[in-house]
UniProtKB/TrEMBL annotation:
Annotated keywords: Hydrolase
Protein name: Glucosamine-6-phosphate deaminase
The organism of origin for this protein: Pseudolactococcus raffinolactis
Domain Glucosamine/galactosamine-6-phosphate isomerase per the UniProt entry, residue ranges: 24-225
UniProt keyword Ribosomal protein present: no
EC number: 3.5.99.6
GO molecular function: glucosamine-6-phosphate deaminase activity
Keyword Hydrolase attached: yes
């Protein structure tokens, strides 16, 4: 594990943007899976300025690693892709042929598609306060899972989480499905590099528990300790528990 700590969100976001852009400068195809949500917002603002109108980056291909589809809206983007388009793809002018959505319709062939495309150069993820990464929440997936659909009908708490994500994406919670799809731990661990970013004091405890504690199913992100090329990007607030 490599750990980089910067003073604040602005500084660590600059590191993340520079790092991702560095991955793109290559003579061969580059496959990146990137996160949506609040954590990478400043990173994408910086990255947009680096990549927009850069024709020499046409070899860079993007994948989402989870998706929450809208009820009866299979022809439309789900929550994750909607967020990624708003945060990054649209302002950066990324051509549609370089974006490869994971959806409820193709999740069963997602791992085979990634393998055929040459695998992921890197996957850029966040971490939840409960230790989840991607859609791998406690008691939803197992370490051996590849890309799967997660049924939340027996988990009222999970149904509420999905509805909250809909609301944050500006969509009516009435459109929330009773399932979502995600790359499982095994699929994530197959990436050449895992880049995990966390910002703020609210993430300090789980960073210590997940990355420096016991590897166990109850803390899904703890499996990332075993990745041979894990890079962790933190601001000082998120690093508080491990730096004291």
């Amino acid at each position: 594990m490599q750990l980089i700590v910067e003073k604040n969100e602005a500084a660590i976001s600059q590191v993340a943007a520079d790092l991702l852009f560095g991955k793109m400068i290559s003579k061969h195809r580059v496959n990146l899976a990137i996160t949506a949500g609040a954590t990478p917002q400043k990173t994408y603002e910086l990255l947009v300025e680096k990549v927009k109108q850069k024709s020499y980056l046409k070899h860079v291909h993007y994948y989402n690693f989870d998706e929450m589809p809208f009820l009866n809206q299979e022809a439309h983007d789900g929550v994750t892709m909607t967020c990624l388009k708003n945060l990054y793809f649209t302002p950066a002018g990324i051509p549609a042929q370089q974006i490869h959505p994971l959806t409820a319709s193709n999740y069963q062939t997602h791992d085979a598609r990634l393998l055929a495309d040459g695998g992921l150069e890197a996957i850029f993820i966040g971490i939840g306060a409960d230790g989840h990464f991607c859609g791998n929440l406690p008691q939803t997936t197992h370490f051996q899972d590849e890309t799967v659909a997660v049924d939340v009908t027996s988990r009222p708490d999970m149904a509420d989480i999905l509805k909250n994500e809909m609301v944050k994406a500006g969509v009516s919670e009435d459109l929330a499905c009773d399932y979502y799809v995600t790359m499982g731990p095994k699929s994530v661990m197959a990436a050449q590099q895992v880049i995990l970013m966390a910002i703020g004091e609210a993430k300090a405890k789980i960073i210590k528990q997940a990355l420096f504690g016991e590897v166990r199913q109850a803390v899904p992100a703890s499996i990332l300790q075993l990745h041979p090329n894990l890079l962790v990007l933190l601001d000082e607030a998120a690093a508080r528990e491990i730096m004291s």
